Amino acid sequence: MNPVDILRGYAPEARVLLVVAHYDDETIGCGSRLHLLGRLTIVYVTDGSPTSLYDAHRLGFSDRESYGVARRSELAAAFATAELAPEVIELGIPDQDAVFCLSELTGRLRQIVGEVQPDLVLTHPYEGGH
């Protein structure tokens, strides 16, 4: 199967695994193509809420839990608006902490790839914090 065909929407039965750091990376990275990926599984490595409360406080949240809930709600609303229903796997690592558990993360991703058996894996670069 040609990965380009999958991204052009010519292979709707293809299994695509999208691995992203946190909620909204799927939209930033390939939002215009998500509706073409019929058998999509998205892995969210982090829970979208850093242990540092800087972002949460800046956005009016008092704790990381309420900030995380809001980010998950935004994701659900975006999926509903786009009429998407991908399989979602959340690894739950605190946002910005994945670098501290790379060995565990690598093992978990290997297991997920074995279970999903994707035709294509998409992700974004690690450089710059991801």
How far apart the termini lie comes to 28 Å
- Determine the number of helices (DSSP H or I, runs of at least 4 residues): 5
Beta strand %: 15-25%
Structural class: alpha/beta
The shape is globular
Strand element count: 4
Largest sheet: 4 strands, parallel
Give the C-alpha Rg: 15 Å
Q: In words, what does this structure look like?
A:
The protein is α/β, with parallel strands linked by helices and 130 residues long. It has helices at residues 3-8, 25-30, 54-58, 64-82, 102-116, and strands at residues 15-20, 39-50, 87-95, 120-123. The protein contains five helices and four strands, in the order αβαβααβαβ. The protein is globular. The mean pLDDT is 88.
Feature tags:
130 residues; alpha/beta; four-stranded parallel beta sheet; 5 helices; 24% strand; globular
